[in-house]
Amino acid sequence: MSILETIKSRRTIKNFKTDPVSSEQLISWLEAAAMAPNHRMTEPWEIYVIGQETRAKLNHKTNFGNAPVLMAILSKHGATSIETEENALATACFVQNFNLAAWEEGVGTFWSSIAATAKNREILGVPEEYDVIGVFGVGYPEEIHEPKPRTPINNKVKELP
Predict the structure, then answer these.
(1) Among 18, 67, 115, 120, which is least packed by CB within 10 angstroms?
(2) Using 50, 70 and 90 to split pLDDT, how confident is the model at 62?
(3) Which residues belong to any copy of the Nitroreductase domain (predicted)?
(4) What does the alpha-carbon distance between residue 24 and residue 7 come to, in Å, rounded to a whole number?
(5) Each residue's pLDDT tens digit, 65-103
(6) Which of 42, 66, 68, 62 is nearest to 130 (CA)?
(7) Structural domain span for residue 114
């Protein structure tokens, strides 16, 4: 699959098969994700692979679509507010790289902001100097929905003199 096909076909997955995702696959996608652009090479991301005990405490209403892998991706604060923002943006690029690398191999993700709450930060043991970018279910899709309509890109492009 070409990179454009991967980007255009990627979907958020809400229900997953029980088929396992190997640690080797996960590490391979994380290594690809780490090639994300990041200002001053801060590499601000941290990944927490969430086990069953911690997962049960998070108590997500959908149980993350029964994804076989659950992980939290965090972004370290910078020395300044601008660097903190740059780090969060770099970590979002990391997430997108991960999503695309997994999707290319037939594995989908579900991105949840559940860990932004104080309670769930505590459950995950997130240090104060980190933001939680999201908790991600990772696995083989049970179903893949059609894409939702998008605003035509020409409506978003502004040409400046």
Answers:
(1) 18
(2) confident
(3) 57-140
(4) 23
(5) 999 999 999 999 999 999 999 999 999 999 999 999 999
(6) 42
(7) 3-155
Tokens of 73: 């991706």
CA distance 87 to 118: 21
Query: Would you give the distance in Å from CA 138 to the centre of its chain?
Result: 9
Chain position carrying tokens 């927490």: 48
Name residue 120's amino acid. N
Does residue 119 lie within any of the structural domains?
yes
Residues 6+ apart with CB under 8 A from 74: 45, 46, 47, 48, 91, 126, 130, 131, 132, 133
| pLDDT beyond 90 at 1 | no
Q: Note whether residue 160 is domain-resident.
A: no
Helix (H, G, I), strand (E, B) or coil at 131: strand
Residue 94 lies in a domain: yes
**What pairs with residue 134 in β-bridges?**
73
User: Could you tell me where the beta strands, DSSP code E, fall in 15-88?
Assistant: 45-49, 69-76
- Domain total in the chain: 1
